[in-house]
Amino acid sequence: MSDRPSPDEGLSPAELAAKYGLAVSGARPGLGEYVAQLWGRRHFILAFSQAKLTAQYSQAKLGQLWQVATPLLNALVYFLIFGLILNADRGMAREVYIPFLVTGVFVFTFTQSSVMAGVRAISGNLGLVRALHFPRASLPISFSLQQLQQLLFSMIVLFVVAVAFGSYPRLSWVLILPVLALQFLFNTGLAMIMARMGAKTPDLAQLMPFVMRTWMYASGVMFSIPVMLADHPRWIADVLQWNPAAIYMDLMRFALIDGYGSENLPPHVWAVAGGWAALVALGGFVYFWKAEERYGRG
Amino acid sequence: MAEARIPTVIADELHIVYRVNGAKTGKGSATAALSRILRRGSDDTARGVRKVHAVRGVSFTAYRGEAIGLIGSNGSGKSTLLRAVAGLLPAESGKVYTDGQPSLLGVNAALMNDLTGERNVILGGLAMGMSREQIKERYQGIVDFSGINEKGDFITLPMRTYSSGMAARLRFSIAAAKDHDVLMIDEALATGDRKFQKRSEARIRELRKEAGTVFLVSHNNKSIRDTCDRVLWLERGELRMDGPTEDVLKEYEKFTGK
């Protein structure tokens, strides 16, 4: 449109871009830059998780009361089946078994729902990914955060159950906080791994419920692993006890329940709990970041 | 023109391909899906993944201060091209270079119908990358602009209770609250009643003044003529014409038989 020949005449697009300092659109930022971007979006991550949590029950007449009622009913069903009908409480007194079971269900549900939400974090929000700019890890992190808030509601139920069966608040209850923090890190890492896999293969959303159920039954949610597997080779029980879901459940029970002492915990339990959290959180984050520029493809 | 023109967006031989699962011709049955899995490893077409080549080798350079219209029939790749320029859709081959972060005008995907209008304003603002302080500052402006509260206190009701017009007005008001370097508008102009349309057109003009470069997708030739000084015409994913608005629109109108 100008009459004189432009000084940029004859430059290739790449050279022209370099001359005026244009950057490739949608390129993946470096890891440090990415972390900084995520930190800049922390308000969005928190607001999005709270919005999802509120939206969940906004049409129900009882409204947010379901946040507490749902886990309570859940625990009741498991108690009915495993406590009353199947008598899975072998080797445990009733006042230990009930809080043992409820803790197991809630702690495992935390991981389970983080994984399930993670699978659909990208594939179920493709509209959002294709409309707005934000570091995509905001989505799986936000969904794990939603599950953490959901668990905090469940903890109210859990405290009531513990007290009702004779485990009163004591100093070891403080340990609940580091256990929750470690499990949250572990879950977030897992959610990021699942988010990347689910973005490429949405079929995982169909498959994961079965994987998660197998994992649940193998982690001793409703029975004590060493007692149940007493007449099997020792290593099977060891492997099951070292799996992260069982570790976090056992630590939570140890912190909360009076009659569940350290003799029920595998050796080096805190190191294992921290190791799993660090490994999965860091590994998951890097794994997710590596595909950052491709999530819009769906 | 005395000063040199500064490029803000450069597209270089851009190709965009969508992959659609399970859209092989005819039968979408379980056996078809199974054979698709078994044939894994061979190329995409054999596995029943249909490829849609939405943008084919588009190149152009946009300069600061330009308002560029994108025209073409439905499915010609206009929206896809915008998303690729914004860096939201990865390119199959070719590259897009941009100055700063181009953004699409629209926050629909971030809003939730079950939340109150109030919370959606905050959520939408955060999703667009505004800070909490910025949102607080502009909150009243957004609500007033949308006119939601003209007929009572609707902003504290869930968005699902809004009429479609009211919801569209709120969505536009949130989206238009942010300033952009490179602004892209995808047929978002005609929402709400006549009064609101006038207001939103004025707001778009304002945004255009603030933004370095504007892209506008529209099927309304009048609004293209009003806003744009350059037009890109896409047809079947290819750039058919690129030039001053009048020249391109004349050809386009001949093509569409108007």
Global shape of chain B: globular
Strand proportion of chain B: 15-25%
Termini separation of chain A (Å)? Answer: 39 Å
The stretches of 5 or more residues of chain A where confidence is low (pLDDT under 50) are none
Largest sheet of chain A: none
Pfam family, one (chain B): ABC_tran
GO molecular function (chain B): ATP binding
Domain ABC transporter (chain B): 40-256
Keywords (chain B): ATP-binding, Nucleotide-binding, Transport
Can you walk me through this structure?
The complex is a heterodimer of chains A (298) and B (258). The radius of gyration of chain A is 24 Å and the shape is elongated. Chain A is mainly alpha-helical and 298 residues long. The mean pLDDT of chain A is 89. The two termini of chain A are 39 Å apart. Chain A has 13 helices and 1 strand. Chain B has helices at residues 30-38, 78-85, 117-127, 132-146, 164-175, 194-210, 221-227, 245-256, and strands spanning 7-20, 50-63, 67-71, 93-98, 103-104, 182-186, 213-217, 230-235, 238-244. Chain B has a 6-stranded mixed β-sheet with strand order 5-6-7-3-8-9, with helices on both faces. A 3-stranded antiparallel β-sheet of chain B has the order 2-1-4, covered by helices on one side. In chain B, α6 links the parallel β6 and β7. In chain B, α3 (117-127) packs across α4. Chains A and B meet through α1, β1, α3 and α6 of A and β1, α2, β4, β5 and α3 of B. β1 of chain A pairs antiparallel with β4 of chain B.
